[in-house]
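Q: Convert this sequence to structure tokens.
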Amino acid sequence: MLDYETFCQIRDHLVRQRLTVAQTARALALDARTVAKWAGVEQFLPRAGVPRTSKLDAYKGQVVRWLDAHPYSAQQIFQRLREAGYGGGITIVKDYVHRIRPRHHEAFLKLDFAAGECAQVDWGEYGSIAVGSTRRRLSFFLMVLCYSRRMYLEFTVSQKMEFFLACHENAFTAFGGCPSRIMVDNLKSAVLQRLVGTAPVFNPKYLDFSLHWGFEITPCNVRAGNEKGRVENAVGYVKKNLLAGLELADFAAMQPAAMLWVDTVANVRIHGATHQRPIDRFEEERAHLRPLNPAGFDLARVCTVRATKQFRVPLDTNHYSVPARYAGQRLTLKAYADRVCIYDADQLLWRHPRSMDRRQDIEEPEHARQLLVQRKSAREQRLLVHFLALSPRAQAYREGLEAKRVNARVHLRKILALAELHGKEAVARALDDGLELQAFSAEYIANILAARRRIDNEPAPLQLTRRADLLDLEIPEPDLSIYDRDEGADDENTP
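A:
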């Protein structure tokens, strides 16, 4: 079948360019008979299609009546058609049902808000990011003022309660006031239970927080995200405009980038719904916000923990040190978004910056030094006890060492080592001698012990008091004959 475009080309070549049928056929790569057939046709009329019949034709009227009476699905229609004798497939049934039954588009009422009346909050998520030595899920908190559309954006690596509340306070500070109510989704940080037909059960911490700041909590209905469409759209806007293609090395760079984007892009763009810049409409809304409560609110998540033998308390795979004397004790931990505070009852033991990394040991060096001091003191006490046990006059000798302003502990340890070598009694006598001589040092005691040992080990003279003890010595008589030889003989032999 010739299409309309080819028909126009044939007419152009034959009528306007005045080519022959053969020339037109060659130019358009068509059969000459096809060109000749359409040469005399002045109006393109496509070939009428041959109507096709289907097995469903006989049942189409019944399908329409079923759909008018009940909102049947295509599968339900197909089952009824099979019961009525239909022998075709389900695909043609689905196509026909889809064609004759118009799509249902849910209608929503446009929600209007007065200045300062309401804000909407929500969490967003976007992949992961490097935090120290690990990677964490990247979350971001959004609060949008419903009237002006001004937004507050903050990135976190957790959606726990302490972060949720801290983001609220940071938003209030950025706006310079608080809206009269806040619309939230049914997240556990805000709503513990939400059943159709019953009043919502709010998280007690969030409820106390709302009473402190003076705003009303308005939860959305279940599966009704359109009710907070302003913040839902803002979440998508952040992902598409800020985060898409954004490459940052680590989490520390996220919040500065977010603040810059909010101030230079999000809050100064012409909003599609208001046709104004959010920052301009906010100037009108600012005066309608509730003033901030000057009193602080404790945002911490509180839990009871037991310190380990290494005087550490756990939080989110990390461990934080406490003073060594609290090892093994039950303590109270208050987790804030930026810090960790550890208490013994009402006494604050220590405050650590909170680490967003994983499996880290956060130690205050002072806590370990306290343990070392305790252990050193215990060792010195044991050393002194052992030294004083050497002699009743050991204390006097120690005082003499200290009077000389020497490191008495070193000398005491050396003297105890001498006692292991020479015995306690020998060292006790040496200490007595040292006191008499006013010789105060481990070296003096070692010299005294060495001198006494030499005296004790010197052999005594041999005492022979009995004849039986005498030695039987045989001394041969000397041969004096050699002196009696003739002098002349000697001379004769002399050369």
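The longest strand covers residues 118-131.
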